[in-house]
Amino acid sequence: MFRRARGHFWTLAPTIGRTLVPGRVEPGQPWDTEVPRDPGDERRIRITGLWHAVDAATTAVVIVHGLGGCSESWYVRHATREALARGIAVLRVNVRGADALGEDIHHAGLTADLHAAISSKELAGFRRRTMLGFSMGGHMALHLAADLHAVDRTTPCDAIAAICPPVDLLPVRHHLDRPVVYPYREYMLKKLREMVRVGIARGRLTYQGDLRRLRTFEAWDGAIVAPRYGWPDADTYARQASVGPRLGTLGIPALLIAERRDPMIPASTLHGSLVNPSSNLEVRWVDGGGHCGFPPRMRVVSSAIAWLEDPAATDG
Asked: Fewer Cβ atoms within 10 Å of its own Cβ: the N or the C terminal residue of the chain?
């Protein structure tokens, strides 16, 4: 019971605390690029973020937020501070829609935005280009690593790290749709509803129903995400967008950090996908934090950033 409560505490406390008192981070420069709305589509989507240059830096990291988050999420800001303190340049990216500009919505398997970010001109001169994703952002980063399985790859990414990612979306969705998880679910859905409202107002998205009635992720995915990206229903989307089946074919080194007491991504939902992982995947289980939030003594984020600099590193 105590350990379960601790998982909730370290999920909620940093979120509440950093919302009330945001941690200071050096101002970044506005960044944007354009990507096709869909593969082969002439229509373009603008992706935004914040760029933090560092003099004489040889490593850069693209930091990707989780579902319902953005480049200003507390954990993204925290990771930015950690990276800058190590002399690493940072690009905090908003995946499509997360900046509340109404360009589009994203899905859990979408990698076009990440390919564009890691390939942007700001990162062109660095010896190492890396990516750090949190929660759903980690899931997307793992997909990018799988995209790079081909020997003749063109996206210049050297390594990725994923903190508290889901890997099998269907059981995670079932868990998040349970009544007991309502506070977490509603927190994320509230942000997603607003993202879609802006898109509808701009004429970029369409939905005829009442967004407030979409109170579960099954309903949300079935009404919003699946139709936008051509899946027939929420279950098909969850199965086909899950990165789990691709963990055996990662083209670059990847680090997956999972919390045993994570109240949002149960450990049991990861085990099946980690039976025969790629030799490029390192899995670290930690115990003592929550979903993307950890006691400072655990140094989870700093150790992940150190690993991105050098996958042989064992300490932050």
From this structure: N
**Structure confidence at residue 316 as a pLDDT band (50, 70, 90):** very low
d(CA 316, CA 313): 8
Count the neighbouring beta carbons within 10 Å of the beta carbon of residue 89.
23
Q: Which residues contact 177 (CB under 8 A, 6 or more apart)?
A: 185, 216, 217, 218
Give 2-309's CATH code, choosing from 3.90.79.10, 3.40.50.410, 2.40.50.140, 3.40.50.1820.
3.40.50.1820
Under 8 Å between Cβ of 214 and 220: yes
- Residue 124's pLDDT is 95
- As a whole number of angstroms, the distance between CA 149 and CA 157 comes to 12
Tell me, what's the pLDDT at 9? 87
- Cα–Cα nearest to 262, from 1, 4, 2, 16: 4
Q: 52 or 23: whose pLDDT is higher?
A: 52
pLDDT at 3: 58
What tens digit of pLDDT does each residue of 32-41 get? 999 999 999 9
What sign results for the dihedral spanned by CA atoms 306, 262, 285, 134?
negative
Domain regions of the chain by residue span: 2-309
pTM of the model: 0.95
Q: Could you tell me the CA-to-CA distances from 275 to 1, 21, 173, 226, 309 in Å, in that order?
A: 28, 41, 21, 29, 27
| Amino acid letter for position 58 | T
Q: DSSP characters for 243-262?
A: SGGGTT--SS-EEEEEETT-
In this prediction, residues 51-80 reach a mean pLDDT of 97
